[in-house]
Amino acid sequence: MTARVHVVWTPELLDYDFGPGHPMAPLRLDLTVRLAQSLGLLDLPGVRVVGPAPATDAQLETAHEPAYVAAVRDASDGGPGDPARGIGTEDDPVFPHMHEAAARIVGGSREAALAVWAGRAEHGVNLTGGMHHAMPGAASGFCVYNDAAVAIRALLAAGAERVAYVDVDAHHGDGVQRAFWDDPRVLTVSVHESGATLFPGTGFPDETGGPAAPGTAVNLALPSHTGDAAWLRAVDAVVPPVVRAFAPQVLVTQHGCDTHVEDPIADLDVSVDAQRLVTSWLHDLAHEVCEGRWVALGGGGYAVVDVVPRAWTHLLGIAAHAPVDPATRMPAAWEAQVVELYGREAPGSMSDGATAAWRPWSDGFDPADDVDRAVRATRSAAFPLLGLDPLHD
Prior knowledge:
Mean pLDDT: 97
Order of helices and strands: EHEHHHEHEHEEHEHEHHH
Structural class: alpha/beta
Organism: Cellulomonas pakistanensis
Pathway: Ketone degradation; acetoin degradation
Strand content: 5-15%
CATH class: Alpha Beta
Oligomer: single chain
Helix content: 25-40%
Shape: globular
Number of strands: 8
GO biological process, one term: acetoin catabolic process
Number of domains: 1
CATH architecture: 3-Layer(aba) Sandwich
Family: Belongs to the histone deacetylase family.
Strand order of the largest sheet: 2-1-3-8-7-4-5-6
Radius of gyration: 19 Å
Protein name: Acetoin utilization protein AcuC
Low-confidence stretches: none
Number of helices: 11
């Protein structure tokens, strides 16, 4: 039976834990799933919750060097780590069973992607995924294995001829771009805070793909403190046109919610309401272009109580075709759990109270506006390579 949405979840996924004080706190996922359960989303007809097995070494090696996988295994078994490969650094410290925990995330994204491709599910969601910084031979930016790259490689091996990857995390999706830099079958699109002010320091408009795949990397580097209206205008001006032009058979998206104004690591000023709207746009785009084949992944997001649970519960609701009304009050039982765990109150509703209003690009280019200039730079660099007019929709 075809499910409406294949949701990757098991408490074992909380084992991906770099330790106390690390921003990538597994509690953000625990609170998200608790909130989704409290709102009844995981019990809806058509929602299939699947606990994945860890990806095998052979599956990991579709995106990673065998020596790197071996190094992660060694560290997991009590080895000292390998800082030259990013293992045992401040960003990616060694923790017990690190290989198994990271491989389980990959297994979840891979299984979700294949379920969507095979028609066993319309949409797939893995909130623990989106580890977009991991490189073929190194951990990076809290990411040990690159689940998005493995999932896309699995789609290609299963027969997909064109896959689009759209990343709206505050940080550039550098690892996924690297994996498919010279592969004309994969379009990577990243909308992020500029690498001039934020890790990983890449993702500029002139990064447009390798010699065999010109135009298949699209990067929109936004100035710090870009807020709702400008962020929405920028996403709309770039993402839908390039995805439509590429005409993918599957859309894979990364929904890091560290774009939020309260995120402690990045410097964008976006609301949960704007994040919810962009998620709905990407869902609708999958139905328009890919016959609904959509794989949605989590990613960054370090406002553990105030942002992540709400943003990703909205994602689950949209994927289940049961969007949560932003005016919904937080369930009393969930609020009590937050007080018990954190000794503080949670946000009162699923909204920040933002209007998420924006102006379409067709209203005209403002050369005095920093965000408009960033959009123009991206359109000028990438659009002609995809057969699009950079000046007009």
